[in-house]
Amino acid sequence: MGVGTCHEDSIMEEVNGTALMLGDADDLTQYIDLDTWQIVQKPPFPGTLEKPVISVDEEAAITNCPIPTTIRIEKHMMPMIVDDGSFESSFDTPGTYKIICNAFPYLEKEYIVTCE
Question: First vs last Cα of the chain: how many Å apart?
Fold first, then answer.
């Protein structure tokens, strides 16, 4: 099932056993509420970056993460799953790091951490 903006004249139909909602969609900013079948705007990600500038080996923390949240650090291969509401990471090389957070139904959020 796709998500997005649907015009007032949108209709539901079934194709090969799958329900479809016809209309324009933007799955980056909206989702379908499965209780009401209404298009809903995704709310902002509720997490908070505690310190945007840290020292080498000091921890950067993002608190108030929904459970579960998928975290990716740009240029690192493996995503991590937050299952306790908080993410901590340290960096051993100075630089700027982009931390990308995803949790349904929230908008994707990018945080920038500078390690000095």
Answer: 45
